[in-house]
Fold:
Amino acid sequence: MATRWRRQRLMIMGTGRGCPQIAFRPWHPARPSTRLGDVGLPSDVTAIAAQQDGVISLQQAAAAGLTQRRIGWLVRSGRWQRVHARVYATFTGPLSYRGLVWAAILRAGRGAVASHRTAAYLDGLCDDPGPVVHVTAPADRHVRSRIDGVRVHYAHRLARTRHPTRVPPRTRTEETVLDLVDTTRRPQEVETWVTSACQRRRTTPERLRPPATAHGRRPRHLGGRRLRPLRGSGRARRPGRTPTKAGSATVTATTAPPPTAGPRCATGTPTSSATRAG
Structure:
């Protein structure tokens, strides 16, 4: 009985006399699904992905030793996922917000940084990052294709406004505040951004004065008139109130500020736009 069972088992596996043309193949138990560290990736790839919240670009992966064929296999097998064109997440499942920011920066290309409301959220200036990710790219090049969920800005002096150490790469806190002042539509939001940055101890009025002075030299800067008290050397007088005389007593008359045009920017959630140049 045991010999008969062994013969049937060997015939099924391909070594019995009834099936001599099939070579013997040893049986192995099913292996569990492998993760990032178990698929034999180069150490440089895992190190880059760890520094960028699990996100890597095609150029970085190729420089670390992966071929496009291997990357395509990783995506098709479900071990990696495509976030944007030539940008991948080295894991499955949803991305964190920092991972989305990294993906937008890598998709925007060389020299791009997080800016505007995205940089403000990363630095703790606000509690809501908004519906889109804001990145700023150097003005000497243009991102041709549209990026879903990303708004691209351009600046000439990005090398000077970029923070030297923070990751993901983003603009300095003072430049972030002034960028938000540039794009605001309501005058009340100017005071909100400046007050929030100072109250949360992310910056001070003294540190805001030098960049505000530099921005004030540009006539197109929308916040130049609104941030005029920051550029003054002494105590600024409250805008909109002028002293007049009525009889022998001095009274204060309130005058309405001149109307200012709001910034020309598209509404909704566009994927690309050009803002202030420098």
